[in-house]
Amino acid sequence: MSEKKRGAWRRGARERGATGRGATGRPTGTTTEDSGSDSTPQLNYDSGTLTHSTDNSNKCLAILVTSVNIGDEVVMKEEAKDSLQVALQTDELSIETRYSIPLVGNQAGLEQASSTRAFVELKQHANSLGQKVSQLELNNASLEARVRVLTRSQEHYLCVRHRFISTFKRDKCGGEQSESDRQYIQQGNLQVHEGDVVTDSLLYTEATRARHDLNTFKYLYGIYPVFIAQLRQQATINLLNLHATARAARTQQCHNHFFTLFQEFIRKLQDQEGNYRDDYLIGPPTSVTQAYLACLLCYDSVAGQDGSCH
Predict the structure, then answer these.
(1) What are phi and psi of 27, to 5 degrees?
(2) What is the mean pLDDT of the chain?
(3) 275, 230 in Cβ contact below 8 A?
(4) Which helix (H) or strand (E) holds 215?
(5) Cβ neighbours of residue 6 closer than 8 Å, sequence gap 6 or more
(6) Structural domain spans, the chain
(7) pLDDT of 136-178, one tens digit each?
(8) Positive or negative, the Cα torsion across 67, 69, 71, 72?
(9) Is 201 exposed, middle or buried (0-12, 13-18, 19+ CB in 10 A)?
(10) How far apart are CA 12 and CA 83, in angstroms?
């Protein structure tokens, strides 16, 4: 091919989009290797790193990148060949060491190698941030559960302290007992003699001298104290307290069948992963909802009589 024809061919290729990256251009590229051993370096687009297939390689990547206009697939392939040929003949090649491995290529090729690595690093950073966010959400949920437990236990403890002061006022001060004092004493008595799963769980999980008789707690409340923080539904807590009160009562307060129904409720309350779900009163009734209602109906029946719990 004469020099005149070669120049015209190059100009035609450039007019078809081979000179640089425009808004209508798509980057194309090719790689070649220096002669030497069979070991070929690879640009890993997943990790953004350059790697060798063997430890001792004397080859490096040669990267050539240009662009073509977007259009018909066949035409784009032909233009890519022309464009790469022009870039190979006209673009200045440089040698740079990136990621501890030498690269040979035109400016667009070297930039492509760097942008690939930068994109992968950004993706890895985003994944790392996503994992940190997930961990923070778990920590936040744990803290929220602990705050709920502490708030509930404080409310119950205040009832007991009200009872102490009002009882002292009644027995030692000789003053007239107000209606609020009578209510404080009554509520405090209930707290002392009834179940309180939230506060009692702290005796096993938060106390300086934690209790170790876990089976006693489970016999009273149906589940182990470590799981109490998962419970958000007040109805669940009330039923656990009701069961403990019935277990601890000196006289029978409910059908014996109530305890069987309660165990069935606890069994259904636990999911396959061993956690206790607390949404059975939200949405359509489920088997857990039915087990919960059966417990309440049975407890409300008169002890010793056949009732709705049978």
Answers:
(1) -65, 140
(2) 75
(3) yes
(4) helix 214-221
(5) none
(6) 3-122, 196-310
(7) 877 776 677 667 666 666 777 778 778 778 877 788 777 778 8
(8) negative
(9) buried
(10) 10
Q: What is the pLDDT of residues 217-251, one digit of tens each?
A: 999 999 999 998 888 888 999 999 999 988 888 77
CA atoms of 11 and 19, how far apart (whole Å): 10
Q: Which of 230-239, 258-267, 301-310 has the lowest mean pLDDT?
A: 301-310
User: In this structure, what are the phi and psi dihedrals at residue 276, rounded to the nearest 5 degrees?
Assistant: -105, 115
For tokens 């194309």, what's the residue? 28
The DSSP symbol for 18 reads: I
Q: Which two tokens stand for residue 36?
A: 């030497």
**β-strands 61-69, 101-105 pairing:** parallel
Q: Residue 129 and residue 134: Cα distance in Å, rounded?
A: 9
What is the value of pTM for the model shown? 0.47
pLDDT of residue 8: 44
Do 166 and 159 form a contact (C-beta atoms < 8 A)? no
**Is residue 125 helix, strand or coil?**
helix
pLDDT band for position 83 (50/70/90)?
Answer: confident
Backbone torsion region of residue 93, taken as left when φ is above 0, otherwise alpha when ψ lies between -120 and 50, otherwise beta: beta
Measured between alpha carbons, how far is 29 from 51 in angstroms, rounded to an integer?
Answer: 19
Query: What pLDDT sits at residue 107?
Result: 84
Amino acid at 232: R
- The identity of residue 4, as a single letter, is K
157 forms beta bridges with none
List all residues 6 or more positions away from 151 whose beta carbon is below 8 Å from its beta carbon.
none
